[in-house]
Amino acid sequence: MNTLPDFLRRSFSAERYDHHLLLLFGGVLALLIVASVTGAILAGRAKSDSGRAVIANLNARTKAWWKMCAVFGFTLLAGKYGTLIFFLLLSFLALREYITLVPTRRGDHRTLFWTFFIITPLQYYLIAIDWYGFFAILIPAFAFVFIPARIALAGETEHFLERAAKIQFGLMICAYCLSHAPALLILKIPNYEGHDATLLLYFVLVDQMSDVLQYVWGKLLGRHKIAPEVSPNKTWEGFTGGVATATLLGALLSWATPFTRWQAAGMSLAITLMGFLGGLVMSAIKRDAGVKDFGAMIEGHGGILDRIDSLCFAAPVFFHLTRYYFVR
Amino acid sequence: MKSAVHPLARILAAAVRLLTGVQVRWQGCAAENRQRIYFANHSSHLDFVVLWSALPADVRANTRPVAARDYWQSGFRSFLAQRVFRAVLVDRGAGSHGASEERAREKRFEVIEQLAQSMGNSESLIFFPEGTRGSGETVAEFKSGLYHLAKRLPDVEMVPAYLENLNRILPKGEFLVVPLLSVLTFGAPLRVEQGEGKVQFLQRAREALCSLRRKGTA
Predict the structure, then answer these.
(1) Chain B residue numbers touching A103 (CB-CB < 8 A)
(2) Do B178 and A116 touch (CB under 8 A)?
(3) DSSP state of B23
(4) Strand order in the sheet with B124-127
(5) In terms of residue numbers, what domain contains A324?
(6) Does residue A89 form part of some domain?
């Protein structure tokens, strides 16, 4: 072990991962195995064509979950910098899907270059060097004035306000909001030092399980649509069942967090509600653009942004609730 | 006769695929290794590489771009075009302006002959019938080359290929790239119909190309 470079030894040393992190991972693994086995059994039983299609999509999703969990697991184990690079990549890919759908013009080219290659990486760099004050205002304050200024300098005025607003919105959702998830790693929560990776996993787990459970409850009991114009798959039954069960799950996992049981329930409720709203907002953008998914990168799920829309909305709220109530 | 693909061509193709995240749709025909002329809309330097990289490896080895001699003849451009991608360099605008009618016809005949010869009996070509890169918002009128080529080579399939968003990734006159997602759609092969004139065919080919653009996209 002594031949390893220092930073590697630090990131892979045993005390980094408390057993809580490993337990959460174990739980995810067990869940995936159950989902795969259930999917295989259901595949043999489906009778109608539409039933087979649903099961096939379900199994494609489960398969993609295996891959996503593997990638996310490795990045968490790789420590703070690995996690930051992973989320930077997610931001980059999400922003790419978003801007592809938004009608920008030739005059926006250099602005977009800045957005992708300077502002977004800088946002993550600020987390890496622990500069919270700048991290919190880079995009809402500085990018906000920079983007319209840079477009104005390029000289094309057609749909000016619309273009500036759309680019800023994408940057806010894909880079700013999402970056609050890995920013959990720089929160210094008293009596919870060294466990911030566990908190990040807890947050992602509750958020994504809420998506899955809303989908499952919706498929099982879904009748009454919440907003048929925006998202035909979102039903009151799916929403209520998903939020309730995901909140319960979050409360039961409170041992992995700095929260008490009831606090964890409250946090999970906030995560699931924000996640739901994120899915709804991003659906509205898709409907407006006339597409079903943002991309085709993850089989059965659509694009990256289709998978992380709930994460983008929940991250800043969870981050600030934690920071406000638990850091000071 | 199979010619080896230059290693740099492979590297560039892989890089461009990553950069443009191109989603390839074979809508009107299959990805077969047969003699074809792929004709596409042109708005970016990346157009050719994206189209070429979307073809299966065996088809790629037999497919060459047609490029303008005046632009691709010197220095590094020449190395890229001729050595790396085995481009067929032709004189642009043969048969249009300048010189006498007769001289123009002669010149055009030469270019068409040169392209036909370069295809032999196994090679395919990638061709941009607009003649130059446009803004990407509309597809310009086609030059007549495509028609004469189709008449000269009646057994070769003319396959329309529509490239989306490349003008937003690397537009004309820009050297910085913005890595958006692109889509490439191959349509159904065309041939010159019995008694079909030049204007009619070029218009039909252009419409076939434009119809491959997905609905609801800018």
Answers:
(1) 218
(2) yes
(3) E
(4) B23-26, B183-186, B157-164, B36-40, B124-127, B63-68, B88-90
(5) 194-328
(6) yes
- Structural domain tally of chain B? 1
Cα(B62)–Cα(B122) distance, rounded to whole angstroms?
7
**CA–CA min distance A88, chain B (Å):** 15
Per-residue burial over B26-61, b = 16 or more CB atoms within 10 Å of its CB, e = otherwise: eebeeeebebbbbbbbbbbbbbbbbbbbbbeeebbb
**CB proximity list for A131: less than 8 A, separation 6 or greater:** none
Its ipTM equals 0.88
- Two tokens at B102? 């007769």
CA A73 to chain centre: 14
Q: Which residues pair with B66 in a beta bridge?
A: B88
Q: Is residue B1 part of a domain?
A: no
Tokens of B55: 């073809």
In CATH, what number is assigned to the domain containing residue B155?
A: 3.40.1130.10
Is B218 among the domain residues? no
Cβ–Cβ below 8 Å for B178 and A295:
no
Partner residue facing B180 (CB), from A99, A296, A297: A99
Place of tokens 């998202």: A231
In 3-state terms, what secondary structure has residue B126? strand
Name the token pair of A46: 């489906």
Query: Tens-digit pLDDT profile for chain A (328 aa)?
Result: 455 666 555 555 545 557 888 899 999 999 999 999 999 998 888 888 888 888 888 899 999 999 999 999 999 888 999 999 999 999 999 999 999 999 899 999 999 999 999 999 999 999 999 999 999 999 999 999 999 999 999 999 999 999 999 999 999 999 999 999 999 999 999 989 888 899 999 999 999 999 999 999 998 998 999 999 999 889 999 999 999 999 999 999 999 999 999 999 999 999 999 999 999 999 999 999 888 888 888 877 789 999 999 999 999 999 999 999 999 7
Where b means 16+ CB within 10 Å and e means fewer, B106-124 reads ebbeebbeebeebbeeebb
Contact B165, A99 (CB under 8 A): no
pTM over 0.80: yes
Reduce the DSSP state of residue A103 to 3 states and report it: coil
Residue A37: how many other CB atoms lie within 10 Å: 11
* A218 and A109 assigned to the same domain: no
| Residues of chain B contacting A, Cβ within 8 Å | 21, 23, 135, 165, 167-168, 171, 174, 176-181, 215-216, 218
Total number of domains constituting chain A: 3
Same domain for A201 and A324, yes or no, is yes
Q: Is residue B24 part of a domain?
A: yes
- In 3-state terms, what secondary structure has residue B181? coil
CB spacing of A289 vs B216 below 8 angstroms: yes
Length of chain B, in residues = 218
- In sequence order, what DSSP letters do the residues of A8-27 get, joined into one string? HHHHHSGGGS-HHHHHHHHH
Answer whether A174's CB lies under 8 Å from A94's CB.
Answer: yes
- Tokens representing residue B204 in the block: 């039909």
Kindly report the backbone phi and psi dihedral angles of residue A99, in degrees, each rounded to the nearest multiple of 5, phi listed first: -65, -30
